[in-house]
Design goal:
6-stranded parallel β-sheet; Rossmann fold; Dihydrodipicolinate Reductase, domain 2; nucleotide binding; Inositol 2-dehydrogenase; alpha/beta; inositol 2-dehydrogenase (NAD+) activity; 9-stranded mixed β-sheet
């Protein structure tokens, strides 16, 4: 199928109620996705393959065929090509340069799981090349990048899914939470607290040789040219097989050059759900105040003065003034999850539980039929890729659209800017700029390194 053509009509089943079919969808003839002929299945490519890149690829096998993979680390690229080629699947073509993927006319959509500082360039160029886009969260490195992506979605008409899976795959409890708030079960909301974990500082990380197979210059891409740094101790568990401390694989989230620390990592999940519940997906805060925080290195004029250690905040407590006099607290203390507090009670939700007196009241006063579907906008998909493909078919934006994602991510970006500048920021959610602070507004965008500018 051509990347500019909608998919044939498919119908998704509701995830929570479906037994034995969770995550599956069916064509108009009732055939499961796995039974579709090759010319009925969309053709995908993944750009950026370590950890989450492989996760979203492997979860998509039942829905799509993968014609190409791209990664700047040759070892990662070949390992993942081999894994895709198992179980009778065709081994996809491999590329070190993602632009070769975008040049292919047979690819309908790309999945982007590169480090955050690469997201916008690849996503914009993919849309201009006629591809629909699934991009991992956090979508952007800066607020202005989000505005550009929104413009390109409108200009090109492409379907764009942000990989905030908490809205679907791990989201049944979160959908219940959004429904609880929007149905007024805890009265008028006064406060919402997002617990998103602290981060450990690093020791001094020395310059060392670039690992064999890694194109370090291309990994840096739009970011400033710096030396590769790593310590020999290896990371265990998720993200294993790479140095525990480095300025590259996995640890990139701890550097402002490539990401935004825990604020844009876990914040992209919990602040998103909080804004959804509050009905604040088309607006933003009026003020962001850093109450308590720890930066692991010294800063001057908002820039780190030390370049051999992690520089994102390790601990923080941020107060965000939201519409309707709601106070949002983003904190690294306490349980990871979201606490909603209203005039009639409070409850807590995370990926493992939803608890509180209002939840106990479900025994006698359950949520009404259709409440979850009303929040989701239709039958709930248990698979984020399935929801994306449904959007490709209908040419409607999926559950994690760029506009709602960028609005909540602005809160996370502003929190980081406020800590870096050591002051509260007043925000104009209509103009999407800091009020009366030119220095802070200078952090809304970031210049790309020469040779890695976005090709518009």
């Amino acid at each position: 199928m051509s990347g500019s053509q909608p998919l044939s009509r498919r119908r998704f089943v509701q995830s929570a109620a479906a037994v034995g079919t969770a995550g599956m969808y069916f064509t108009s003839t009732g055939r499961a996705a796995a039974d579709l002929s090759p010319n009925e299945r969309p053709v995908f490519a993944t750009i950026g393959l370590r950890n989450q890149g492989w996760s979203i690829t492997s979860k998509s096998f039942r829905f799509a065929d993968f014609a190409a993979l791209a990664d700047v680390d040759q070892n990662v690229l070949e390992q993942n090509r081999s894994k895709v080629g198992r179980d009778g699947r065709k081994t996809p073509d491999g590329y070190a340069d993602y632009r070769e993927v975008l040049d292919r006319k047979d690819i309908d959509a790309v999945m982007i799981a590169t480090p955050d500082h690469w997201h916008t360039k690849i996503a914009v160029e993919a849309m201009l090349a006629g591809k629909d886009v699934y991009c991992e969260k956090p979508l952007t490195l800066t607020i202005d990048e989000g505005k550009l992506i929104e413009q390109m979605v409108k200009k090109t008409g492409r379907v764009f899914q942000v990989g905030t899976m908490q809205r679907s795959e791990s989201g049944q409890r979160f959908l219940q939470a959004v429904a609880m708030v929007q149905l007024g079960r805890i009265g008028t909301i006064k406060r919402v607290t997002c617990g998103i974990n602290s981060m450990s500082p690093s020791p001094v990380i020395p310059v060392t040789d670039v690992p064999k197979g890694l194109d370090w210059d291309r990994w840096l891409g739009p970011a400033p040219k710096v030396d590769y740094r790593a310590l020999p101790e290896m990371r265990k568990g998720y993200g294993g097989g790479v140095p525990l401390y480095s300025n590259c694989h996995y640890a990139f989230r701890n550097w402002h050059e490539y990401s935004g620390g825990k604020l844009t990592d876990w914040g992209a999940h919990h602040v998103d759900i909080a804004c959804w519940a509050l009905g604040a997906t088309e607006t933003g805060p009026s003020k962001v105040t850093p109450l308590e925080y720890t930066l692991p290195v010294n800063y001057k004029d908002g820039q780190p003065t030390v370049h051999d250690q992690y520089n994102a905040a390790t601990k923080f407590k941020i107060k965000v003034d939201m519409p309707n006099d709601v106070e949002m607290i983003i904190t690294s203390e306490g349980d990871n999850g979201i606490m909603f507090e209203g005039t009639k009670g409070r409850f807590f939700v995370n990926r493992g539980k939803i608890v509180g007196k209002p939840i106990e009241d479900w025994k006698t006063n359950p949520l009404p039929d259709g409440a979850i579907e009303n929040v989701y906008g239709g039958p709930v998909s248990a698979n984020h890729t399935a929801n994306f493909i449904e959007g490709m078919r209908s040419r409607k934006q999926p559950i994690s659209d760029v506009w709602s994602h960028n609005r909540m991510l602005e809160i996370c970006h502003l929190s980081n800017i406020a800590m870096r500048l050591d002051r509260a920021l007043e925000w104009d959610p209509a103009k999407r700029e800091v009020i009366g602070d030119s220095q802070a507004n200078g952090f809304l965008s970031r210049e790309s390194r020469k040779g890695y500018e976005i090709n518009l």
